[in-house]
Known about the structure:
The protein is of the alpha/beta class. The protein folds into two domains: about 50-130 and about 270-335, 3-Layer(aba) Sandwich (D-Maltodextrin-Binding Protein, domain 2); about 135-255, D-Maltodextrin-Binding Protein, domain 2, CATH 3.40.190.100. It has helices at about 1-35, 60-75, 85-95, 110-120, 145-150, 160, 180-190, 205-215, 230-235, 250-255, 280-285, 285-290, 300-310, 315-325, 325-335; strands at about 50-55, 80-85, 100-105, 125-130, 135-140, 170, 195-200, 220-225, 240, 270-275. The strands form three sheets. It has a five-stranded mixed beta sheet with strand order 7-6-8-5-9, sandwiched between helices. It has a three-stranded antiparallel beta sheet with strand order 3-10-4, with helices on both faces. Strand 6, helix 7 and strand 7 form a beta-alpha-beta unit. Helix 2 packs across helix 14. The relative contact order is 0.16.
Amino acid sequence: MAARICGVAMLAAALAMASPAFAQITVLDSAQDQVAPDETAPPPVCGTQPISIARMAWPSAELLAEIHARILRAAFDCEVSVAPGDLAATGSSMGSTGQPAAAPEMWVTRIADVWNAGMEAQRVRPAAPTYVESQFEGWFMPDYLAAANPELRQVGGLAAALQGSGTRLRLISCPVDWACAVFNRNLVTALGLEDLVELVEPANRFEMDRMIGEVVSRKEAALFYYWQPNPILAQLNFVPLDMGAYDAERAKCLASVACADPQPSAFPEEQVLIALAEWVFTDAPAVAGYFQRSSLPLSEMNVLLAQLSETGATVEAVAERFVAERSDIWQVWAGTP
């Protein structure tokens, strides 16, 4: 009996001596489990750098900056800031520091040297065209005229459509000292419309808009020159004419007062891009993918600008309205149609 008690005591002592070592190993293993990095965790959706969007100092660019900031917060839960900017300064900053991360309306042909330097340094890259269309100037007509005369919708068919009408259709051009006035004069000749349209060149922008407004209020038949994006095109329900194909050499001649042999061409195209800092593509590919899908039709921007021109409207309020009402557009951008 005494031997059995002695044996039990020795076993208990041995276990007591071993217990601290066992407990220490258990604690160490638990601590290692807590600090071990999770190598399977995906990278942050919004990247590891601040996402700042340039808000250029004109209405369409202001609207795009505020719209994209709100969508990135709502769809990707990103922290986004909006920073004031202009073409040259923003392009230079993106090319040197990678900030701002995005510029939604970059007119790159107007800062070609700055943009090309950033591209060559691989610090900036285009994500997509800002707008679906690349031609921002053209001829338009009121919707009531387009509905009654669909044959007038193509400039190449205007001469045939107007032959024998007995009247000259008024074409309201731009002010006489604007470059577009020269282009319009030569284009009328190129299309054989000299005896079929009455070309009117207003003295200034105010007179141009007044003439167009009077045409619409009286439901008159007329064509006119204008550019996009612009609220007046949505406010007065104008329909663009098909200007035909763009030809660089022909357009160059049409823009010259000394053009000896005018030939038809659409107005020159503009390169307007959603510019991203290069790091966005590598560090936040989901955000880059969003911007690569976010080209906006010019007609939609015309509507936004018309809303902005309403009494009491602000850029922020119009942006909020777009996000609330046009999920059919922006959910495609976000990849969640």
